[in-house]
């Protein structure tokens, strides 16, 4: 008796199943079975309910808060290693703790570096992620990192809007490279916001560098957390004469009063990916799935094909 057994399987952490199911469907395999046993003290133990010996396994897990998501991924990697998986690829649409990519003051950790070491120590042989907060995080790994760009998803959507006098904007100086990359493919002008913070998630001052009068602005950023930066930038640009302001953010963290800020701001629309599930729906928020992108790149990795065609930046 002969039968076909795939040489790659896809599994998901608990909080990323909504996305992993779509990725597995696009990839063309059923989502693998994994169970999670819970102890009364809150400890948990994942278990693969099918053989993965000699296979490549893709473990889909966005490591957004709380820390249980990261811990579950680490345990799944360790379980896959001990079950003799041939390759273990940690598919992290959202790479959590990435904002801690350097020492910006004394006596603080470099959290992104620590997470990289934890993933490698657990047994990950490859990392696949999208729109890292800082490109240099790739250098924290000794294993291959496939750093995908959501611009391959967003640029066609912006083109389809057919906006007159389109101008791409960055909400801060750090995102200027991203803004220029988008403007290159869209053939648009660029403006930059300059902001100063005295503490995390609180903006002290903001100024716009460039002319926004009569322009349809599209702000681009890798993530939106409390929404303070984007909504303040949108309101400021409308005050300076912009016709409309939209925003494109890859990772919709949306913590604190973010939803309320977005609703009360002059943002016309916020477009995000499903790398993180929305906590609630909003008429101003539109979700574009990244499942197709990850499924395609996973096929390319499995077949040892180049993935450079998926890089717009």
TrEMBL record:
Enzyme Commission number: 2.7.6.1
Domain of life (superkingdom): Bacteria
Organism: Flavobacterium rhizosphaerae
Listed name of the protein: ribose-phosphate diphosphokinase
Domain (Ribose-phosphate pyrophosphokinase N-terminal) ranges: 9-123
Alphabetical list of SMART domains matching this protein: Pribosyltran_N
Assigned keywords, A-Z: ATP-binding, Kinase, Magnesium, Metal-binding, Nucleotide biosynthesis, Nucleotide-binding, Transferase
One Pfam family here: Pribosyl_synth
GO molecular function, one term: ribose phosphate diphosphokinase activity
